[in-house]
Amino acid sequence: MSGHVKNMYPQLSISQAARTLLSLLLVAAIDSVNAGIACRNQQCESHIQRSSKLTRLIHMESVDLLKIYKASQGDMSELFCQMPINIVPDPNISGLDPSERMLSIYSHCKAFLPHLKRVSEQQRDLQPPSSHLLNNLTTAQYRTSGLANQINCIYQTLFPNLPIPLEPVDGPTSIHPSQNVFQQKVYGCVVLKNFKELLSQIRHELRILKNQMCKSRTFAYTNALF
């Protein structure tokens, strides 16, 4: 009887990829619930420190992600990243003042999300389900989405009278509807290379913003008390 019951209810197994996705979804859900509270309650320096830590983590992971990607693409992988592709977002942050540069950071994070998703979709057809590359691409998407939300919080805190546009300020994102395998490999490599460079620039910008904006806001608040 017991053996019959075991046959009726076989043990369920969850792959590592599924566990990773479930944990990321849980974190994203918690973050989304707490996002409004965090934006209202945290101070300027706390916002930027939190975003800086997340950016540093994503940047470190992006270095490994690019290495894993190249290793999984076979011959000529080192050349893929050197080929020009005009549909991949430029990683350079633009703007003259802090508000414009913060908006550019937010815009770049949002602009890279569909490209990371497209690379993940393409590689899903080229890699085995257990591939570390697929797990890392999924992680990069969720972390970048979280970073965009945190940048939004910083922007709202520092510039409450300057709304963030609904669409990325650098223009709409264009992705070619179809690519052959070679084009996919080149496209993915350029996306991940530019993504890594973007994160390096964001780390630099957040350090400057913390020194420029948070100290001036603290000084102004202190003066208002006396």
UniProtKB/TrEMBL annotation:
One of its GO terms (biological process) is cell differentiation. The keyword GTP-binding does not apply. It is found in: Cytoplasm; Secreted. GO terms for cellular component: cytoplasm; extracellular space. Transmembrane segments: none annotated. One of its GO terms (molecular function) is ciliary neurotrophic factor receptor binding. Residues 1-35 form the signal peptide. Keywords: Cytokine, Cytoplasm, Developmental protein, Differentiation, Growth factor, Neurogenesis, Secreted, Signal. Pfam families: LIF_OSM. CNTF is a survival factor for various neuronal cell types. Seems to prevent the degeneration of motor axons after axotomy. Belongs to the CNTF family. PANTHER family: CILIARY NEUROTROPHIC FACTOR. This is Ciliary neurotrophic factor. It comes from Salmo trutta.
